[in-house]
Structure prediction request, 261 residues.
Amino acid sequence: METTKSSATQNKRIALVTGANQGVGFQVAKELVANGLTVLVGSRNLERGVAAAEAIGTGAIALQLDVTDRASIAAATERIRAEFGRLDLLVNNAAISNTRKQQLGLSLAEYAKLTLASNVSPDEMRTVWETNVFGVLAVYQAMLPLLRLSTDARIINVSSAVGSLGLNADPAYHYHPFFGAVYPASKTALNAITLAMMVELESTAIKVNLVSPGFTKTNLNGYEGTQSLEEGSREVVRVAMLGPDGPTGTFTRWENSIIPW
Prediction:
């Protein structure tokens, strides 16, 4: 694990992955380091971030970052500015799916019945959206000045096909019955603010992409997912490694398969 910049890291692309102490975020950070990037391992809990960075090895740097805490975001931004002077890649990965599912011992299907439009808890909805929507927007606003200092900047927002209005409006879609106001709708809202970012930055050199890891086995879904971390991270990494001539404004899953908005 590294704790500060060196002449070697100054010549590498600098990436920030939020929620990188576990799950897809950890795997993405690990693979980006393997591809030669210096990766800031964003973690709400610094100790877990340090452990994750140590597990990844040289090229990984723990960074305390709670996307729901403006002071934490500001401190992380200033540290990046002071130590690296810019940011080349921002992967907004941090997300939560619920606040009650594990506590109540529910399966995804059982939890979905508690998040119907008719019975969803507004408090549960607000808590999840605070991380998945407003947290992403807050990090974007804080990091954008640092991204503007890069000659090859890219933003990747990690979303999900369960937030696709195009797919979920089809009764034949497999996840159609599970569309609810908490996690799925938070990803719909994330897609919408990502489109706002795309529109804002379309006249600049900063690229913005939406990526779905797919149904990956992580803590987010109580490990009910069907894909491995390696499978879930590969599209995020593929897009992250695209050069300055790579596309912007896309919403994809592996391998470069377009997801309807």
User: Anything to note?
Assistant: The two ends are 39 Å apart (CA to CA). The chain has ten helices and eight strands. The first strand starts at residue 14 and ends at 17.
